[in-house]
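tl;dr need the bound structure. longer version: we got a ligand (5-amino-5-deoxy-1-O-phosphono-D-mannitol) that a collaborator sent over and nobodys looked at where it sits. i said id run it. heres the input, straight from their email, havent touched it
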Amino acid sequence: MCGIIGYVGAQDAVPIIVDGLKKLEYRGYDSAGIAVYANDGFSVAKQEGRLNALETRLEEQPLFGHLGIGHTRWATHGEPSDVNSHPHIGSQNKIAIVHNGIIENYKQLKEYLERRGVSFASQTDSEVIAQLAEYYHRGNILDTVIKVTGRLEGSFALGIMCLDEPETLIAVKKDNPLIVGVSEHGNFIASDVPAILKHTNKVYYLNDKEITILRKDGVRFFDFDKEELQKTPETITWSFDSAEKGGYPHFMLKEIMEQPKIMRDTINNTSASVREAMNELDITQFNKIVITACGSAYNAGFVAKYVFERLCRFPVEVELASEFRYKDPIVDERTLVILVSQSGETADTIAAMREAKARGAHTLSIVNVVGSAIAKESDICFYTAAGPEIAVATTKAFSAQLVVLYILAIEFALRLGKLTADDSDKLTAEIALLPDKVETLLSQVDTIQKYAASCVGYKSIFFIGRNIDYAIAMEGSLKLKEISYIHSEAYAGGELKHGTISLIEEETLVVAIANCERLYPKIISNVEQVISRGAKVLLLSNFENAEQNDHQSHILLPPTVDLFSPSLSVIVLQLFSYYVAANKGADIDKPRNLAKSVTVE
Ligand code: M6R
């Protein structure tokens, strides 16, 4: 959570930082702030609320400078307020910092400094970094930063300015993302690539426990022992447009519409790399697979459990990463742990990965953000080719994760001798058809939009399915509640009678997903049970003859094998959620209380 950016160079830092913050706002949007070096001191603007509140303030009281840092906040310690916003500046007005992460021992450090006469302005954990830096500073900012980081426990990506070195921007990374961009007019730090893509596509990825010193004309890197490091920049291939809305009202809609392309790209990129990686990996050494992830990525794992188990006849457990890490998990060198993450920076998933590795498990990750912590630390990483995903609600990254998981499951099944080459080819061909089928569904956007517009008044919306349809119902429910704030739950159809059905009344909508042929009559019985108790039903199904009447609407999905049908159901579920939220006037790309990358526990 939280986005940080910094610039030092020939141009005015303020518009560069504000523009970068716009691209980082998906990481947190409780408050925002900026500090620049000007006239022998720091000029600061910090504002509770969305970034446009800070912009308005900057129009009224403009700032100028060639060195600056900016921050967009997702509050962890201290309520969203002007004073708790970043940047934080020490009480001697000498060192300014922006921080993404959590300082776990901030209370002890705060007490330590307070005993020595330092007074604090905010309730944040982050302020302690600025105060400690001023307390230790003896003239050399690199030495100060090394000393400070030695006392910090927790996670931090930091941008730092010091009055003693007014042409220097200094930054540190530990357990939170940070990149360095270099351009002809100046150099940047940022939490993520889109923030600086307008200026450069040459990027250095910092590793944990690395420090960088940026000046107008160069960048240097150090480790925590002050040893200078040689690093090579990477060239980002995303176009600048990929991080823009491109005429759509929201990033979420743009990202939904991009799915046929990103699925094609992911299929093309992944097929060969999975085969190659599997040549190196003896999968017969494993006796179980554990998939662990959070939120939608967990739901992708839940879908994959059905696919792997059906194709491979191999036990697969799916665990929430936040639970896995504390449950004393039963994993060892005979376990393959699959981590799924768009950002590759989710704190719980990183911790689960480290826990699994510490127990000897082999780790394989499916990640979207290149160079992220999970991508780097897992034993094998497959990238999804979704490009930058900006909307907090994931759509295209989820679809890309599903296709990678299908491809992996087929390859596993083949190597375990559970699938013939012929059957594997047929399934692979079916995957290749999915992007076209998604395109067909996207062309029905008007029908879904119209239906969704009539659903705004529901107080509760339930999602039901059986087998793999249940797994994708979970994602439908999460998507809806996340952006529309309508209460929603997902249930396995057969579970309704064990409790949930008591919630069904006139004001309830039930979205039923029915793509598994052998279970079709069963889920239809569940549909009849809820209709007879007053619910309205939206049926998503590839069975052409599904009934339509006053109580039940049907959206016909293109046919595919049931194992891959989640890739089609989810498109309707995403559009449905999007249009319900849009009709409610919700802030779709930035739902309340959420942030895109959850880099805290
Ligand atoms: O970056 P990750 O895929 O690890 O993020 C995991 C979840 O935080 C994420 O999927 C979240 O649930 C989405 N906002 C759902 O749309």
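gonna send this back to them w/ a short note. The CA atoms of residues 113 and 561 lie 63 Å apart.
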